[in-house]
């Protein structure tokens, strides 16, 4: 953690294999905190969980730096990680600071019908976008209603096909029938 008490968190946007696959570079934007060369980071989400040291940090135009902080777009070189085990949509975080979840409760708001939204019913499969992760899941509306109409909102429970790194207060977007449908905020983590 840094002096302000914020632990490191970076969403993985891309994965590159280097040195004949012995080192993997994960790129993304640091959301909070900072990371230094030699720090241990945890790969969270999609079955991750490995804790590995940061071998190198690349900033803009391939410039090597000793540390990076919130707001920077960087690439982190991680030795011992196989390219197939790291993927877009995972996060790199201070070990133990973030966990992956396949279920959560949320408040959602649907877009207008002319913006692509449509009625959402319990049991429908939606596509959820959390950071760079895109994961299908099933939505269950609260007991007070059996459907939500465009331009309305409500409380839902979501069960994702794969666990994603998330926290309470995390924002997300979702698509319905291939079209942008709305946004939401995680209110409670499950599973």
UniProtKB/TrEMBL annotation:
**What InterPro entries does UniProt report for this protein, alphabetically?**
EF-Tu_GTPase, EFTu-like_2, Transl_B-barrel_sf, Transl_elong_EF1A/Init_IF2_C, Transl_elong_EFTu/EF1A_C
Q: Where is the Translation elongation factor EFTu/EF1A C-terminal domain?
A: 97-189
Supply the name of the protein.
Answer: Translation elongation factor EFTu/EF1A C-terminal domain-containing protein
Keyword Cytoplasm set for record: no
UniProt-listed Gene3D superfamilies: Translation factors
Q: What is the scientific name of the source organism?
A: Streptomyces hesseae
The UniProt entry, under Pfam families, shows: GTP_EFTU_D2, GTP_EFTU_D3
According to the lineage, what is the superkingdom?
Bacteria
- Tell me where in this chain the Translation elongation factor EFTu-like domain is found: 26-93
The keyword DNA-binding is assigned to this record: no
Q: Which SUPFAM superfamilies match?
A: EF-Tu/eEF-1alpha/eIF2-gamma C-terminal domain, Translation proteins
User: Which key words tag this protein in UniProt?
Assistant: Elongation factor, GTP-binding, Nucleotide-binding, Protein biosynthesis
């Amino acid at each position: 953690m840094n002096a302000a008490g914020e632990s490191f968190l970076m969403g993985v946007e891309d994965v590159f294999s280097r040195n004949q696959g012995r080192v993997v570079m994960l790129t993304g934007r640091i959301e909070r905190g900072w990371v230094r060369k030699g720090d241990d980071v945890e790969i969270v989400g999609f079955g991750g969980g490995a804790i590995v040291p940061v071998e190198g940090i690349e900033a803009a135009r391939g410039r090597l730096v000793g540390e990076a902080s919130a707001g920077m777009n960087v690439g982190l070189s991680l030795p011992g990680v196989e390219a197939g085990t790291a993927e877009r949509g995972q996060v790199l975080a201070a070990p133990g600071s973030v966990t992956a979840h396949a279920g959560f409760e949320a408040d959602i708001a649907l877009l207008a019908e002319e913006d692509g939204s449509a009625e959402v019913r319990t049991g429908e499969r939606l596509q959820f976008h959390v950071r760079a992760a895109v994961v299908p899941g099933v939505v269950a509306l609260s007991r007070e209603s059996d459907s939500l109409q465009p331009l309305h909102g409500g409380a839902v429970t979501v069960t994702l096909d794969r666990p994603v790194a998330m926290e309470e207060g995390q924002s997300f977007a979702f698509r319905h029938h291939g079209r942008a449908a709305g946004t939401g905020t995680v209110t409670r983590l499950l599973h």
